[in-house]
């Protein structure tokens, strides 16, 4: 069951990220403020939707939201500050870019760093429970997919058109064979899916 709001005293924003578990590319985050008592029969966790459904819903979310924003932290900064801190920083950047100041923040997952003095709640699997988080998950996912498609033609051997940077067998095999591209996160370990060999450029 999906809910419109966690609380009804303040303007509420939902936040989520996409790309945290990837080997390449940025992590994206989105922040979405929906109208009070918002409801949608098809809006849910982006992972439960097809790509076509996500893009249709993105148009509807951007049309109906009171405010929304999308931000990213690139692979170089991910390597520098680690993926958890990069994910949290991306969410803060998305909140910074909102045209409407929220009074309460809903975050998917169980980790968040205080943003200004605005209260927040972390909701495990929140993208399947609250419309605003689900909307943020769809924006983060689709904008990140667009980015990965835009760089995929430069490095077709990694199959980013299909895997979007996630560690599929084909992607891991390509890293073992060709090494890292300029867009790979070098702080991540990449194991050979067929053997115990590790391709590791951790610093």
Question: Would you write up a description of this structure?
Answer:
The chain is an alpha/beta fold and 203 residues long. The chain folds into two domains: 12-151, Ribonuclease H-like superfamily/Ribonuclease H (Nucleotidyltransferase, domain 5), CATH 3.30.420; 154-200. 35% of the residues lie in helices and 18% in strands. The chain has six helices and seven strands; from the N terminus they run E-E-H-E-H-H-E-E-H-H-H-E-E. The strands form two sheets. The chain has a five-stranded mixed sheet, sandwiched between helices. Strand 6 (189-191) and strand 7 form a beta hairpin. The longest helix has 22 residues, at 131-152. The radius of gyration is 17 Å and the shape is globular. It starts with 11 loop residues before the first strand and ends with a strand. The model is unreliable at 195-203 (pLDDT under 50).
């Amino acid at each position: 069951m999906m809910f419109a709001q966690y609380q009804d005293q303040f303007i509420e924003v939902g936040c989520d990220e996409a790309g945290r578990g990837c080997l390449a590319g940025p992590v994206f985050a989105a922040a979405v403020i929906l109208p009070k008592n918002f409801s949608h029969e098809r809006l849910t966790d982006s992972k439960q939707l097809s790509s076509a459904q996500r893009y249709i819903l993105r148009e509807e979310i951007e049309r109906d939201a009171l405010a929304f924003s999308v931000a990213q932290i690139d692979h170089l900064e991910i390597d520098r500050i680690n993926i958890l801190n990069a994910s949290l920083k991306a969410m803060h950047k998305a909140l910074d870019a909102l045209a409407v100041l929220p009074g309460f923040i809903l975050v998917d997952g169980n980790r968040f760093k205080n943003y200004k003095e605005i209260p927040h709640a972390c909701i495990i699997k929140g993208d399947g429970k609250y419309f605003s988080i689900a909307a943020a998950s769809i924006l983060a996912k689709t904008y990140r997919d667009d980015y990965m498609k835009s760089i995929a033609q430069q490095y077709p051997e990694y199959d980013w058109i299909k895997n979007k940077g996630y560690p599929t067998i084909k992607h891991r095999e390509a890293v073992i064979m060709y090494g890292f591209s300029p867009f790979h996160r070098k702080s991540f370990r990449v194991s050979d899916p067929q053997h115990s060999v590790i391709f590791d450029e951790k610093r």
